[in-house]
Write a structure and sequence with these properties.
about 300 residues; globular; Rossmann fold; alpha/beta; about 15% strand; 8-stranded mixed beta sheet
Amino acid sequence: MSAAERTAARSTMQKAELGRTPEQQRADFDAGFASRPLGDDVTLTERTLGGVPALEVRVDGPDNPGDAAGVILYLHGGSYIVGSARTGANLAAPLSRRSGIPAVSLDYRLAPEHPFPAAIHDALAAYRELVESGQNVVIAGDSAGGGLALATMLAARAEGLPQPAGAVVFSPWTDVTLNSPSMHERGDYDPLFSRANMAEAAEHYLGGADAKNELASPIFADLQGLPPLLVQVGTAEILLDDSLRLVARAAEQEVDVSLDVVAGAPHVYQYFAGMLPEADEALDHAATFVKNRLRDNSVGGVA
């Protein structure tokens, strides 16, 4: 991706307006993401997982056998306010296509109607059903879904459940106290978010809860015992340091962790697959990570 291509990618994005209601935000988000083409090879099937609505994401093809040795639990982004299982399928499908592993995209409850920790309860219930049915799981998520993926693993540990084989997080929101340096320093560079946008979302999500709670802000958690992590982030986003701090903390606490940083790339740049080479490379790397973790059958810890 040339500097010009990265600039062009950022120019397609628009800074979110302040003061919009959750309903307005959802309508706008769905207009842009809820009906994006997934490909003729993709089948979506409604189901429930742990009592939570979800979409099973299946991609036909020789690289997607019906007896795959695992599943991707995908948690969509949207600041915990917008998004759905269908918007999550936009990234779950290409990840499934490239890895050959089926995915389930979860329709967890949204704030402010269902504030923290409702989303975590839903994700944990879904994860519990997969694990108790004998499935080998990799959790993946973008933005708020990335933070939720981490919180789900922490909650699973607290409940005595085995850890997933690994986790893939794209531009994760890991600190809802909004104190990462890039939250203050990169607002002009980020084409999508400002700190003020994130503050509105955090207020809706927390509903008065402590922002330093480790399930709300996994950056403050004890990460020891978590499975291998793959973190991908661009530098043109205010959440850059949410990723960098997470990776440093994970490494300090003896968690296997890999980091991909693309200079000048915007938030969840994987959405630009097919247009920007680095987006395709990121999804290829994520798919390889998923396959390797499931191949090693590393439920419960590092293989």
